[in-house]
C-alpha cells in the first residue's frame, strides 16, 4: 500500500504546521529539491490560508480542507478542495508590482505568489465544492 | 521563529526561522511597538531568517510605510537567497532597501 497522497485539514490556522509537514514528506517521496519544496510550501500556505480566513463567513459551519499531492509523469499536481462559499482566486487581478512602497496596497500578494511559483493554476466549482488545481512542471 | 529587538537610535531586529501566517502575529506586535518609539532607523538582520510568506511581506510593507511617515529609514541586511527569491517575484526587492 502506498503512502497517503492527501491530507485533510481542519479550518484552523494552527493546521498550517501539519500542511507544511505533509509538503516536506511528499517532496521527499517525489525527490524534489529543497528550493522547490520551500516554494511549494509557500504556494500551499497562501492557498490554504485564504480558505481558512475567507471561505466560511460567520454563521457557516466550517468543513475540512483536502490537499492532495500527486506526481504524474513529469508534472506535480496539487489539488485543494474546500466546501466554503464559491470563490475563484484565479479571477483576481494581478497586483502592480512596479508601484512604490507608499502606493502599494497591503495584501493581494498571496495569489500572485501562487501564480509565480506554479506552472498552471485553475479553478472550478463542482458539487458545492471549490477545487483549485496547481500544476508544476518538473523538467 | 525568534525575534530579538535591540532598541536604540538605530533599532536592530534579528529574525530567525520562519515568518509565516502563524508567527506573523508576534512580529506584528513588535512592529507596532517599534513604530511607536521615536527611532529614526530600523535595520532587519536576516542572517538566520529562512522563510517568508505573504503575511510576513505585508508586515515588511507596514514597517516600510510606517518609517516613511516618521521620516526615518528601514533597511534589510544579510538576506538569504531563498528570501531574496520571494522578494524578487513579488517586486519587494525594488521597494525595500536591501544591503
Question: What is the element layout, followed by pairings?
Answer:
The complex is a heterodimer of chains A (139) and B (99).
Chain A: E1 6-9, H1 16-29, H2 34-54, E2 65-72, E3 75-82, H3 110-117, E4 120-126, E5 129-137
Helix pairs in contact in A: 1-2, 2-3
Chain B: E1 2-6, E2 10-19, H1 24-35, E3 41-52, H2 54-69, E4 73-77, H3 81-90, H4 92-95, E5 97-98
Parallel strand pairs in B: 2-3, 3-4, 4-5
Antiparallel strand pairs in B: 1-2
Helix pairs in contact in B: 1-2
Notable traits:
heterodimer; A: 139 residues; alpha+beta; Heat Shock Protein 90; 5 strands; 31% helix; B: 99 residues; alpha/beta; Transcription Regulator spoIIAA; five-stranded mixed β-sheet; 34% strand; globular
Outline of the structure:
With 139 residues, chain A is of the alpha+beta class. Chain A has helices at residues 16-29, 34-54, 110-117; strands at residues 6-9, 65-72, 75-82, 120-126, 129-137.
Describe the structure.
The complex is a heterodimer of chains A (139) and B (99). Chain A is of the alpha+beta class and 139 residues long. Chain A has a single domain (6-137), classed as Histidine kinase-like ATPase, C-terminal domain (Heat Shock Protein 90, 2-Layer Sandwich), CATH 3.30.565. Chain A has three helices and five strands. A five-stranded antiparallel beta sheet of chain A has the order 1-2-3-5-4, covered by helices on one side. Chain A is globular, with a radius of gyration of 15 Å. Chain B is an alpha/beta fold and 99 residues long. Chain B has a single domain, classed as STAS domain (Transcription Regulator spoIIAA, 2-Layer Sandwich), CATH 3.30.750.24. In chain B, 42% of the residues lie in helices and 34% in strands. Chain B has helices at residues 24-35, 54-69, 81-90, 92-95; strands at residues 2-6, 10-19, 41-52, 73-77, 97-98. A five-stranded mixed beta sheet of chain B has the order 1-2-3-4-5. In chain B, helix 2 links the parallel strand 3 (41-52) and strand 4 (73-77). In chain B, helix 1 (24-35) packs parallel to helix 2 (54-69). At the A-B interface, helix 2 and helix 3 of A face helix 2 and helix 3 of B.
Amino acid at each position: 500500500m502506498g503512502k497517503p497522497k492527501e491530507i485533510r485539514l481542519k479550518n484552523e490556522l494552527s493546521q498550517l504546521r501539519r500542511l507544511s509537514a505533509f509538503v516536506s514528506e511528499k517532496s521527499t517521496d517525489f525527490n524534489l529539491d529543497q528550493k522547490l519544496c520551500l516554494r511549494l510550501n509557500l504556494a500551499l500556505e497562501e492557498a490554504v490560508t485564504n480558505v481558512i480566513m475567507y471561505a466560511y463567513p460567520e454563521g457557516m459551519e466550517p468543513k475540512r480542507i483536502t490537499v492532495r499531492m500527486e506526481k504524474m509523469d513529469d508534472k506535480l499536481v496539487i489539488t485543494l478542495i474546500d466546501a466554503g462559499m464559491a470563490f475563484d482566486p484565479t479571477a483576481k487581478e494581478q497586483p502592480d508590482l512596479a508601484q512604490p512602497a507608499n502606493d502599494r496596497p497591503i495584501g493581494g500578494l498571496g495569489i500572485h505568489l501562487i501564480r509565480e511559483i506554479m506552472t498552471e493554476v485553475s479553478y472550478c466549482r463542482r458539487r458545492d465544492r471549490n477545487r483549485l488545481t496547481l500544476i508544476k512542471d518538473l523538467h | 521563529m525568534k525575534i530579538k529587538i535591540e532598541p536604540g537610535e538605530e533599532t536592530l531586529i534579528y529574525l530567525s526561522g520562519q515568518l509565516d501566517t502563524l508567527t506573523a502575529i508576534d512580529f506584528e506586535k513588535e512592529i507596532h511597538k517599534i513604530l511607536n518609539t521615536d527611532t529614526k532607523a530600523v535595520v532587519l538582520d536576516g542572517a538566520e531568517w529562512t522563510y517568508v510568506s505573504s503575511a510576513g511581506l505585508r508586515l515588511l510593507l507596514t514597517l516600510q510605510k510606517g518609517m516613511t511617515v516618521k521620516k526615518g529609514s528601514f533597511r534589510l541586511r544579510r538576506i538569504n537567497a531563498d528570501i531574496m527569491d520571494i522578494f524578487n517575484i513579488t517586486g519587494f526587492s525594488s521597494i525595500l532597501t536591501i544591503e
